[in-house]
């Protein structure tokens, strides 16, 4: 009898435990959170840029090389290009303002010392077309026209960069080597009927110098619609650059109106000194290759 009562008690206890367990909430596995990747600016990148270029209206300085006050008189006595400049028959100082569109591409490499926020160093090379071709004119009180043309068709730089990253924001300074395809031309016309060309001179070649500036860059999320190349990051930047390619003397020689050929030094000449310097303000997009 005792064994039967114990068996019944065990059965009742099992039923009670099952009912109690049914009332308890199910155990759910804790959620798994994927670690958010920390942005690093380290890696190679390439991209495009476009913006606005403008010169500093640099003064083109002209001097006469012949006549009284220029040392030994060269040529006939009526050749006095020095006096022509002093009396403003030919402008001693003249400026040609240049401004226009610029667009190109860049490639570079960054290294960040600590991911997230920290110092970033790098190097960048870029090349762009510049729409800087302008001609300016001057007419003396005697009716002698003078024109000056200055142009910069291409500008490239190779620069170092150093900045500080605030996670997705990068603020940086930059500076280095600059080169460009420059062109200069001075034409001095006579006040005779039809204003025939009296003096001309020009120069066209590659010039070198330096560039410096700074900017700010922002890294977009990798799923941005701009990430058409499916790279590890897409960055947007706004940048200012100051460039200086130096100065060049151009000899402006006398022209034979009958043949168009330049005369010898005996007919006199001028020297016009041009300089190429200015500013770029541009925006760009970069595609970064490497770990995020």
Automatic annotation (TrEMBL):
Belongs to the Omp25/RopB family. Residues 1-21 form the signal peptide. This is Porin. InterPro entries: OMP-like, OMP/PagP_B-barrel. Transmembrane segments: none annotated. It comes from the Bacteria. Keywords: Signal.
